[in-house]
Amino acid sequence: MSSHREAPEIAKDPVADSSDLYAFVTPDKPDTVTLIANYVPLQLPSGGPNFFEFGDDVRYEIHIDNNGDGHPEVTYRFEFTTEITNPNSFLYNTGPIESLESKNWNRRQFYSLTRIADGKKQLLAKKLPCPPSNVGPLSIPKYNDLVRQATFGLSTGEKVFAGQRADGFYVDLGAIFDLGTLRPFQQLHVAGKKLFRDPGKPVNALDRMNVHSLCIQVPLNKLRRRANRYDRKDAASVIGVWTTASRRQVKVLGDKVAADTSTGPFTQVSRLGNPLFNEVIVPMAQKDLWNTLPPSEDKRFAKFVEQPELAALLPVLYPGVFNNLDKLNKSKKARADLVAILLTGIPDGLIDGFSNSTGDVQADMLRLNTAIKPAARPNRLGVLGGDLAGYPNGRRVTDDVVTIALRAVAGLTVPLVDKNFTPDDAAAAVTPGLTEADVTAPFLRSFPFLGTPYDGFNNPPVRA
What we know:
Blueprint (H helix, E strand, L loop, with lengths): L17 E8 L6 E12 L15 E7 L8 E11 L22 E11 L2 E10 L13 H7 L2 E2 L5 E8 L6 H4 L33 E10 L18 E15 L8 E12 L4 H5 L5 H6 L9 H5 L2 H9 L5 H9 L4 H9 L21 E4 L31 H12 L52
Antiparallel strand pairs: 1-2, 2-9, 3-4, 3-10, 4-5, 5-6, 7-8, 8-9, 10-11, 10-12
């Protein structure tokens, strides 16, 4: 749900569909930032014989804005090529894959990594191998060994990995998109109270699904603009991050003797900054347009942040539960709290010891104050839970962004900008009811942080 199938056209193009974006100061290496962009969502691990991969015809990029103008000063570009080693076999592999050079692996993928800074391109690496999809224990006896082989420390200071990982995003898709049902409160739902007498147990709809991840760990001095100091109140400490996928404007389908060809300039088809922005904030008729625009154009969508549809729906779906929110909605006051969280960053003075403002330009980006050190004991509710190193200060892989977003939309963050507003009691309790414990694959303590992808043979789990 973070951005899985979030717009009509990109839902038809999964290899270019960005599903989640993470940006955080690296816990075990705090002089770096880890950036992770997930693509190709909702992968069934057993989905062969054509297993999942990046698109050779897609340009994937992670962008960093370090001066608040909504345009990138630094971009990391990933471009892929695929090679078939045995053109006479239909199989993905003809035996165990024990190394990235295994002759048993029939469809190998490689990528180049380019850094673009202030308009200048620098090729950092070429033909770096990706690991295979996790077919099963007979095909890949030691998957983590291949991940280590596919993790590269570059001479320029970056560490990089591109390949399949377990989807770490947890959300009850089936309930939320069934008229906004939250299973822990289903008996209070305007329609659910006719069906349910008690709270329900939430379901992580994305558990045991895989994604393809672009993971890069970057030294701070390669992301931040030059400044005399970087403390948590200095604007130079804050970066904005988003990811895009682009395709050539023209594709010509081949005939019996000619292969398909793509030509023309690249055009953006997918974008992701804050989780849930296009998913929940942007109306259906404008979702495809939003995907094509840079963050600097997001002032066009500010009205949907100031008066979000979901805020109006909560009092309707849960009668008598969000009375104060209902009054706020009817007053037509612009939600300045949500504008700060999603479009400008939170200015100094609203939260003690915290800011991640990038200025006046309204742009959907993950804003990360790099001067805030990783938390010794992370709280999944991030800033709402008193943990200033978590969302909306960047985003860590375990942050409960759905609960955070729901509580913010429900009015919990309004007192940041309006001391006279009292949130409904439910605003501090609303949640789909899931945590990182509902993700079967354990998160890693170090790069690339997302868990080992589920294998096709054991998904669903085989009962003895």
